[in-house]
Amino acid sequence: MLKTFKMYIFSYWLYNYLVVWYEYMNNYSYIHVENCIWGDQMEHKDIYNDLAELFKLIGDPTRIKILFCISKKEMCVIDIAELIGMTHSAVSHQLANLKAARLVKAEKKGKEVYYSLDDDHVEKLFTLAIEHIEEGR
After folding, report:
1. Do the Cβ atoms of 98 and 63 come closer than 8 Å?
2. What residues contact residue 52 under an 8 Å CB cut-off, 6+ apart?
3. Residue 28 and residue 129: Cα distance in Å, rounded?
4. In this structure, what is the dihedral angle of CA atoms 115, 120, 63, 54, given to the nearest 10 degrees?
5. Could you count the other beta carbons within 10 Å of the beta carbon of residue 105?
6. How many CA atoms lie within 13 A of 132 on its CB side?
7. Diameter of the chain measured on Cα atoms
8. How confident is the model at residue 47 (pLDDT cuts 50, 70, 90)?
9. What SS3 class is residue 116?
10. CB-based contact 69:83 (threshold 8 Å)
11. Dist. CA 75–CA 112, nearest whole Å
12. Helices marked H in the chain — which ranges?
């Protein structure tokens, strides 16, 4: 009988705790768009997916190496492959992904295609990321 009573008290306490937690989470834990540093941009639901895809794409160490290779000067696939120690086809595949995301641009010169960063935003993104990492060290 005492054991049943203790279980009842515990169940009642747990239930009340979960109700309070649920109400708190519903009322206070979501992001208020008007308080967000990005303002109106975050109202568009696609921006979340686009940001996630961008960070997923540049989150790969191989693609980061490629982006750093071409950040200083334009390079062809052969030069990039030699520099990072990968096959030409693997580098071409990664460059195609980066080009589709508008992180790199291609320019054909004779028979060779030379790749460079698409614009200053890509370089700024990496510069800020490196500054952030260095700050924590």
Report:
1. yes
2. none
3. 30
4. -130
5. 16
6. 6
7. 90
8. confident
9. strand
10. yes
11. 10
12. 2-28, 46-58, 61-72, 77-84, 88-100, 120-135
Q: Is the pLDDT of residue 73 over 50?
A: yes
CA distance 40 to 22: 28
41: helix, strand or coil: helix
Q: Could you tell me the two tokens for 94?
A: 């990664």
Nearest alpha-carbon partner for 67 in 83, 53, 87: 83
Q: What percent of the chain has pLDDT over 70?
A: 67
Residue with tokens 């009340």: 16
- Quick one: residue 120, left, alpha or beta (phi over 0 = left, psi -120 to 50 = alpha)? alpha
User: Taking the model in full, what pTM does it have?
Assistant: 0.66
How far apart (Å, rounded) are the C-alpha atoms in residues 60 and 68?
A: 12
If you ran DSSP here, which 8-state letter would residue 113 be given?
Answer: E
List domains and CATH numbers for the chain.
61-135 (1.10.10.10)
Q: Residue 134 corresponds to which tokens in the numbers above?
A: 């260095």
CA distance 103 to 70: 11
- Say how far apart CA 87 and CA 95 lie, in whole Å: 12
Q: What is the rounded CA–CA span in Å between residue 74 and residue 69?
A: 8
